[in-house]
């Protein structure tokens, strides 16, 4: 038998395949373009691996059921697009404060509102970061190819389990809907991280207690014999609500610290020809593919360009951006919006180098030619 | 032939996206790099639909087709809409139902009865997309014949294999038999 399976796969399909490989056994959602295939394929494939698919009455119910399944011990996912992502914000915050591991996919489309349902946009960079109310930290991953969607979906589940947090997988319509070559290993060996389960007896279990030196509590599954209370209110180690200011401060700080203190583990950046670059293009998802083409063409014409591509867009790759800023004369942030990530890149890199933005919003992917002419002519 | 870009255009529901997938799969079997994408409006049927395929020996970064080398068009609306995106020297295959041919003398135009063949000869309008693939193959040899047949048979519903093989064959024949319907540069 061959070691590799080579096939043509759609981005949304790779997301489902990756999720199942990571251990997803529950999906609840409300189908919406351009993420619909994720729901369709989950409905088809989950029963084949002993999992469950539920189509809910709306997006809020979708994320709520996903959270419920995750608390019951399953690896669970929901996917949406556009207006659906606005609705997911309700449950997202609940997953943050209850520390429920789950994956929320947002295949972005043109907005606001129902906007351009079948066209690409990168309008939810900031909504993914700050969309749910209350101060919090969040992990957001952003793949650029079908193969990377597969790997990144697995990583999303692993990070969700490891840090007991919702992980957002942001995708572009362009990549979600296109098909390209993917090579999968035949032996199906993928690195899987499962949430830490309590080893204590049920009567001694405190659902939100953290062990010395750890920031993530052990998580029992509902129905496994451990009784515990789950609430969106600020809660103590016992899981019951508390209005105590010390309890509140400890909890909220820990929720943020467990992500921000582990950036070395969470942040993933791909750099292409940045070592000797004078100009760095910062881009993610589909636009980073245009940017890579642009970098190659610019190099051919003697301009030392490079690509800085965050795969983890949140938390921000501050350390890596700082290094980049000290190395290059100019940074151009290319995104299909009017400058969202640009603000963050400028905040970090602006003190050391010139940071500019190039954005366009009309439902078409930014082309390499546009990037080249912006770099050349400013 | 390092990189070839194709655009298959027509109306939603004509199976052009499936045709694009099949072509991409055939190129994959040939060992090429490939990206297949599509764009369509919010409607389920009708409107202008297009599928795009990039076949390349090199890695494909930018995944969209701007100017294509080969274009298929099954409706007048799609023909008018996309004709300017065909490169100079490019190949255009249009269905016979398209009456107003583009006024370009820098491309090769092949006008063949794809939709009519599907209905009259095979009695199934839905195989027009496979006939079109046969014609594209016969004209361009962009993929190998074996890979194309394998890709077609791998994607069509079970029980329709013979019908689709016939459809491919009809597609080959359309080009062989309609040399007189070529315009522009001699084919």
UniProtKB/TrEMBL annotation, chain A:
Keywords in alphabetical order: Oxidoreductase
Keyword Oxidoreductase annotated: yes
InterPro entries found in the cross-reference section: 2-oxoacid_oxidoreductase, PFOR_II, Pyrv_Fd/Flavodoxin_OxRdtase_N, THDP-binding, Transketo_C/PFOR_II
TM regions (residue ranges): none
Domain of life: Bacteria
PANTHER family associated with the record: SUBUNIT OF PYRUVATE:FLAVODOXIN OXIDOREDUCTASE (PTHR43088:SF1), SUBUNIT OF PYRUVATE:FLAVODOXIN OXIDOREDUCTASE-RELATED (PTHR43088)
The protein's name in its UniProt record: 2-oxoacid:acceptor oxidoreductase subunit alpha
Organism, scientific name: Tissierella pigra
Origin organism lineage: Bacteria, Bacillati, Bacillota, Tissierellia, Tissierellales
TrEMBL record, chain B:
Domain Pyruvate/ketoisovalerate oxidoreductase catalytic: 12-172
Keyword Oxidoreductase: yes
Top-level taxon: Bacteria
Keywords: Oxidoreductase
Gene Ontology molecular function: any one: oxidoreductase activity, acting on the aldehyde or oxo group of donors, iron-sulfur protein as acceptor
Pfam families per the UniProt record, alphabetical: POR (PF01558)
Alphabetical list of InterPro entries matching this protein: 2-oxoglutarate_synth_KorC, PorC_KorC, Pyrv/ketoisovalerate_OxRed_cat, Pyrv_flavodox_OxRed_cen
Signal peptide as annotated in the record: none
UniProt keyword Zinc-finger present: no
Protein name in the entry: 2-oxoacid:ferredoxin oxidoreductase subunit gamma
Taxonomic source organism: Tissierella pigra
Highest classification ranks of the organism: Bacteria, Bacillati, Bacillota, Tissierellia, Tissierellales
